[in-house]
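Fill in residues.
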């Protein structure tokens, strides 16, 4: 996926509304177009169908839902227009390494490392980030 010179459209899925707000503001300042936010899997599916983002940031811990399951739903279609999924969490990648490896996500980002540059780096290269 080419990320140089083009806007990256993103949807953020997290059940923490304060995080949604601060992450959206941070990413917008860093040139990522936050097309929408969702706090549950059904909202995320609807947002992805309607907004057609390039990438979806999915929190691993979504309260009553598993972020891993939501990631599978969002990346599960055979449709070439499906967004790339990046898992995010306040937990360290090492704590969840096996689950992350078994997920359809292209990468994992700790919430502390979340930035426009980190997202562009993931989209530019195939290696999983941490």
């Amino acid at each position: 996926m080419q990320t140089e010179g083009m806007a990256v459209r993103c949807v953020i899925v997290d059940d923490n509304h304060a995080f949604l707000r601060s992450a959206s503001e941070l990413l917008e300042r860093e040139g990522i177009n936050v097309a929408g936010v969702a706090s549950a899997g059904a909202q995320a599916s609807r947002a992805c169908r309607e907004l057609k983002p390039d990438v979806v940031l999915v929190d691993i811990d979504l309260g009553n839902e598993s972020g891993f399951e939501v990631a599978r739903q969002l990346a599960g279609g055979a449709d070439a227009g499906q967004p790339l999924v990046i898992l995010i969490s306040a937990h360290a990648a090492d704590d969840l390494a096996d689950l992350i490896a078994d997920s359809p996500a292209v990468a994992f980002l700790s919430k502390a490392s979340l930035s426009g540059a980190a997202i562009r780096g993931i989209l530019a290269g195939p290696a999983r980030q941490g």
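Residues 8-124 form a domain with the Rossmann fold fold (CATH 3.40.50.2300).
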